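Example record used in the benchmark description.
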Amino acid sequence: MDIDLIARTTPFFLQAALVTIAVSGLSMLLGLALGLLAALCRLSANRFVRWPATAYVSVFRGTPALIQIFLIYFGGPAIGINLDAFTAGVIGLGINIGAYMTESIRGGIVSVDKGQGEAARALGLHPLPTMFLVIMPQAARLMIRPLGINAIALVKGSALVAAISVVELTFTAQRYLSSTYQPLEIFLVSGALYLAITTAMNRGIDWLDRRYAIKTART
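Model output (structure tokens):
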């Protein structure tokens, strides 16, 4: 094993890891926003609101994320939308993970006892305040693990943006592999950094889960 190669390339991989974190973090925020909106729409009694959300989940869960990224980055200019690789990658991953988060959020909401919402409405609360003040705080505890799993999958899936030349961990590994022809050292470093990121995320998820469990026990 070439330790010198690992030492020389690690600083560049650390910079690439920051890009991976940025892509994943921004995609996660976009996915959460889309997932929450689509989950609420899927729970709507209005079929004209519910059907588009259902179609969104079906289409983006049923097609490869890489194809979606390609359509945004390479297909966008055909309709006058020109995005840089980083932005296209974030949007593509965000839309894709949002479809999965929709079901995680919806599952958490429907798991809350229906009597909670009925009691809130009996007290005069309108549906929207009932959802965000009564149901969502209770559903949040049930969403932590599913959303955490989605977030970790997103970090690993962020490697797909290497296909449109975003300089993240996988793209950096491919670049050094083509110049060094030493795959063991190169992918060992990139793999270790992916593992470090996902391990930190797992710890954060565990912490959130314990905190909500304690809070729930006290109430």
